[in-house]
Amino acid sequence: MRLDKKGVVGFPMRLAVTSLILAIFIPLAIGMVDDLEKDASISDTRGEAERIADTVKRIYYSGTGSTGTVDVSLVSRSGLVLGGDGSDSYCIAISFDGRTAEKIYLQRPSVKFIGDPLQITGNRTLSIECIDDGDTYGVRVNIVD
Question: How does pLDDT run across 124-141, given as a tens digit for each residue?
């Protein structure tokens, strides 16, 4: 087997083109994997938020003094914030890496979270109580464990 000048010159060129293609593709692939992980986390967290919302609405419809619990399991890097100021007192915020990714507003009925915003991460059991504090009718949520 003989190497000619074309083979000797062609090999470094092929190596350079291959390296260039890999240098472009690898960061794109890593970014796509990160986006998929983020989307999967947010989707899982949205499911947990909807379970909380369903429980909150059920307890709200049951009237003052009604209570219940819901177990929540959140994946790492994701979290929930129940309540807040102004219109946020009617919402569950979904966060990923400490940033709000989306908000779910409790409508039909509009249920207000009474008290300070509650941040939830990891595996928790939540206690939910429908209350009427004289000025506001809504729910108070606490972490049991």
Answer: 999 999 999 888 899 999
Burial code of 99-116, b = ≥16 C-beta within 10 A, e = fewer? eebebbebeeeebbbbbe
Report the alpha-carbon distance of residue 104 to residue 88 in Å, rounded. 9
* Helix/strand/coil for 77: coil
Q: Looking at the DSSP assignment, which residues form a beta bridge with residue 81?
A: 93, 119
Q: What is the largest CA-CA distance in the chain?
A: 94
The first and second tokens of residue 53, run together, are 């919302």
User: What is the spatial distance between Cα 126 and Cα 108, in angstroms, rounded to a whole number?
Assistant: 22
What is the value of pTM for the model shown? 0.78
- Helix, strand, coil share of the chain (percent; to 5): 45, 30, 25
The average pLDDT across 17-33 equals: 82
Residue among 127, 12, 30, 17 at smallest CA distance from 69:
127
Q: Are 114 and 59 in contact (CB under 8 A)?
A: no
Q: How far apart are CA 120 and CA 86, in angstroms?
A: 20
